[in-house]
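Can't attach files on this board, so I'm pasting raw text. These are the components:
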Amino acid sequence: MALNVQKYGGTSVGSVARIRNVAKRIAKWKAAGHDLVVVPSAMAGETNRLLALAKEIQPHPDPRELDVVASTGEQVTIGLLAMALLELGVPSRSYAGWQVKVLTDAAFTQARIVSIDAERVREDLKQGRVAVIAGFQGVDRAGNVTTLGRGGSDTSAVALAAAFKADECQIFTDVDGVYTADPRIVPEARRLRTITFEEMLEMAGAGSKILQIRSVEFAGKYKVPTRVLSSLTDPMIAVGQEGQSGTLVTFEEDPHMAMEKALVSGVAAQRDEAKVTVRSVPDRPGIAYAILGPIADAGINVDVIVQNVGQDGMTDLSFTVARSDLHRTLKLLKDQVQPHIHCREVSGEDRIAKVSIVGMGMRSHAGIAARMFRTLAEEGINIQMISTSEIKLTVVIDEKYTELAVRVLHRAFELDQE
Amino acid sequence: MALNVQKYGGTSVGSVARIRNVAKRIAKWKAAGHDLVVVPSAMAGETNRLLALAKEIQPHPDPRELDVVASTGEQVTIGLLAMALLELGVPSRSYAGWQVKVLTDAAFTQARIVSIDAERVREDLKQGRVAVIAGFQGVDRAGNVTTLGRGGSDTSAVALAAAFKADECQIFTDVDGVYTADPRIVPEARRLRTITFEEMLEMAGAGSKILQIRSVEFAGKYKVPTRVLSSLTDPMIAVGQEGQSGTLVTFEEDPHMAMEKALVSGVAAQRDEAKVTVRSVPDRPGIAYAILGPIADAGINVDVIVQNVGQDGMTDLSFTVARSDLHRTLKLLKDQVQPHIHCREVSGEDRIAKVSIVGMGMRSHAGIAARMFRTLAEEGINIQMISTSEIKLTVVIDEKYTELAVRVLHRAFELDQE
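---
Top answer:
Structure tokens for the assembled complex are below.
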């Protein structure tokens, strides 16, 4: 008799037939005695349709009004899913973000959850109802509708699980868990039964699209046991195999989990980035800010940043941005930054990939970086940039070697073996 | 410097281009110095799309959840219209029903407005903003989303005009006012510059689809000056011709308006009804209830009801229902009513039309009924049922004579002359 929060993505509720299927799954979980809070996304394609309408009216839509429009996608799904449950005889009630209420800050289109008032829904659960709550949306203190940004339904689900002190937050997607690498690249990749919150965070940052990064942060902050599960497998199997299905995000404090940790848990790759290099800039305090400040002001996200040790009072600065921002970044640097800092050259390269290995074991084991670099060198793969964190090692390489790099690293760290 | 509430129907906001046009109209009204509260419907077709989705999931959708889904149509429009205004440089802000807040009872899909909290919007108006408020929707005391039923945006607009003590509630539609008869039937029909609230109410009941009947009731209850205007004419003309455009619904208390009243203000016809006759029922107390009670219980609306003076202790009862309800009504009468009341016969007729003349002058002038009956008799049109009210005279006739009846009555009461 657990209380579970279940999140279903846009593909899982993408049609009337699929909404009915999700309702059947929920009905079986309910019949097995669980209390359920369900968080569906908008029907696949709906959010894009609404954004397109908005952009037709205003090329840069007003953020407050955009949230009013964009939040309707989830509101349609909660009503339809509640109906599908009622049609199956499962008592159910839907709630929009403002009804629950999911209080956020006022940062329209990328709001952050402040608190959730669980009382009304607790009463529903007590009465045996399944609560269906709109993901992605909330309400600010002034009563304006807000949205949490792309992938925000994951965050809603984790936040609701924290508010209800749920036994588990179950994220149903079209994959059945987190793998040691993308199985399309590495056929022998293994599903991880558990992954620590810190590893999941780095995996999300390294290009794994399984969980939205802010939802992982939230899970970590409130220690929400979060499980990634497939919405495609038979629901009864899933119900029966609780605790074994999917991948559970755990917290290092759990000694049982920590014991079984391998050195490296996974390899991730990301291709949609581009590299920008600013050569021979004066090596003095404030130079990184002089270059990256205007880029941040333009709303461009910078990912990996590497500054070499300078010589002769000059240094090089390289960083990666989303590939779609490359052109804008270069123009901005040439127009607004280069005239002031007198660098020699600004150049861009968009045929790059970012490949990362992630693992809790990296904190306490030496030689992991060396093994990574040697493995790549043996395949003749040149490393263009290196960036490290406590539990992640990232290299930027020529894009054409992406799959090769992922495969050889997967083998080098014996990720195919339990 | 008036405060006007303007309502735009689904066709007026049916596409991005049309939303832009509405925004341009509003911008001109604003530039002319008016304060504006705007109430748009859902984009044409959107409410039907949402209802169809719901019915695919649940043939008889749960009313609470249906309102959650159906109310999103208006929420999309308010956001888009506010964006279109902002794009034109007109300060604007949108509000869903629960934000304003439009408090209703809990009768999902046909809720009635209880109160409106105007404070937040007053502040917007003070700051020079156009407030764009979702029609058709509200929120009940428990915080559930409600809708007002078909045509509910008219009611929302009138209720908001009452709450804000607006100078005028302007209903923009695809006709430029209320006519003495349907101009498609009577080419010489005239637009009425004014119509009393009572007449408008009877016209709505008699088949005129220009204003939803509950919005007229609301206008009467709160004495809201309500004007029907075309959204197709040039906005600058409309702005310049205030007080002359469209048709203004007035209140008899206004002596200036009462003076100029003609005997009859308009002729209306309705074809989508059917006639049911129950013959030779015992003429005793409670018999009408015995027949009509079960019909009301089945949710079937009965319109005209006529019971003849009985003879030999027996009487006939006739009434009209929506044509789409005829089959169900007859089955119900034969199965559940006839066995108990021992009537001789239950019969139905669906090739009928209801033709009405409406006018405040009818209260104080004799001979109007006689003139109506003579006019129809001269054309060989047989009258099947007659029903009268203070300011309306309705006859039920063979459907094929509808246009002829409307034309000859229009002429007989000299409605083509000012």
